[in-house]
Specification:
alpha/beta, Rossmann fold, 2 domains, 6-stranded parallel sheet, globular, binds guanosine-5'-diphosphate
Length: 314
């Protein structure tokens, strides 16, 4: 990308899209094209096609369909598969039709097999069965990954699928529909606030997740756009791996919570582990900037400022 290149980020209202826009601005990108949800329905192929025809973006970052944590995946499988398929068809096909130079198609790591060997290398994609709690979302995303490769083969375009780890950060979804770190942060911060003796988290607490701060993730994705010369799937992975129970302990420290964490084992664990291998990303020169402790402070401050008006740690 040049500083003057026309770059479209779909969707910039989402925390990942917003972080990508911040990363592009840090790089001095002068021509970022954005459309709010009210301005353009990404699931409407006509509207999306008209937008591409008019704006002629050269580079596209696409993480546009609905997505969420385990609870969201279990509650809304129909919406997830329907809307993700529609949106990615509209964006990928329009990108081909209107001559986009390079497109990054981002997907969660749940497209990899549930029982995958660890750390998960890109060539393990489709090697085994997916995790049942997220299979509708993952199937749509796997179709998007294959769609990129099909367009690359048939039309010689440069559409690159990118797998993401469990990211977190400012602007996160703190509701039960979001990912684990933000949801647990909300529960623990609220318990600290109202003096509850215990907090109920889901599952056994034993699954491991790889947590990457969203601004590091955005830097990784922009680096892939600038430096990755291939079109094969690449993991935009980094971060720190902890069990859910270890992560909850760290959040307790930040929030100054002295109560107990109770695990409700009637709730699903999801995949036991999904540690993405990041050798490819490191070979492009990626270095993570935000430690797990720093990242936790940033998200805790964001939560406290947004929901209690009290700001962050002292
Ligand atoms: P996943 O990585 O796709 O499985 O989705 P999540 O980011 O939602 O992580 C789910 C894991 O965290 C599962 O092992 C859950 O049982 C566990 N978990 C524990 N408490 C919570 C919570 O309050 N919210 C969420 N989203 N997950 C939780």
């Amino acid at each position: 990308m040049e500083k003057t290149s026309r770059v479209y980020v779909a969707r910039h209202e989402d925390m990942v899209g917003a972080a990508i826009v911040r990363a592009l601005r840090r790089e001095g990108c002068e021509n970022i094209i954005l459309r709010d949800q009210e301005q353009m329905d990404l699931s409407d192929e006509k509207q999306v096609g008209d937008f591409f025809k008019q704006e002629r973006p050269e580079y596209v970052f696409c993480f546009a369909g609905p997505h969420g944590g385990i609870c969201h995946n279990v509650a809304y499988p129909a919406d997830l598969i329907y809307l993700n398929l529609k949106i990615q068809c509209a964006v990928i096909h329009s990108a081909y039709k209107y001559g986009v130079k390079k497109l990054l198609f981002m997907a969660g790591s749940c497209g990899y097999p549930r029982e995958s060997r660890q750390p998960i290398r890109e060539d393990y994609f489709m090697e085994g069965k997916m995790e049942p709690t997220s299979i509708a979302y993952s199937t749509a995303k796997a179709a998007g990954i294959e769609m990129c490769q099909a367009y690359n083969r048939q039309y010689g375009v440069c559409f690159v699928p990118v797998a993401l780890p469990n990211y977190y950060g400012a602007g996160d979804d703190y509701s039960d529909n979001g990912h684990v770190l933000a949801g647990v942060l909300r529960k623990i911060a609220a318990a600290a606030e109202d003096g509850s003796e215990s907090v109920i988290l889901w599952g056994t607490g034993e699954p491991k997740r790889q947590f990457m701060y969203v601004d590091d993730l955005a830097d990784a994705v922009v680096l892939i756009m600038n430096r990755y010369q291939e079109t094969a799937l690449i993991n935009a992975a980094g971060g720190y791996e902890f069990t859910i129970a270890e992560m909850a302990e760290k959040i307790k420290e930040i929030a100054g919570y002295k109560g107990f964490v109770v695990f409700d084992i009637s709730k699903p664990d999801g995949a036991a582990r999904k540690l993405l291998d990041h050798s490819k990303l490191l070979s492009l020169g990626f270095r993570e900037k935000i430690s797990f402790d720093q990242g936790l402070r940033l998200i805790y401050e964001d939560y406290m400022t947004t929901f209690t008006g009290k700001g962050g740690t002292e």
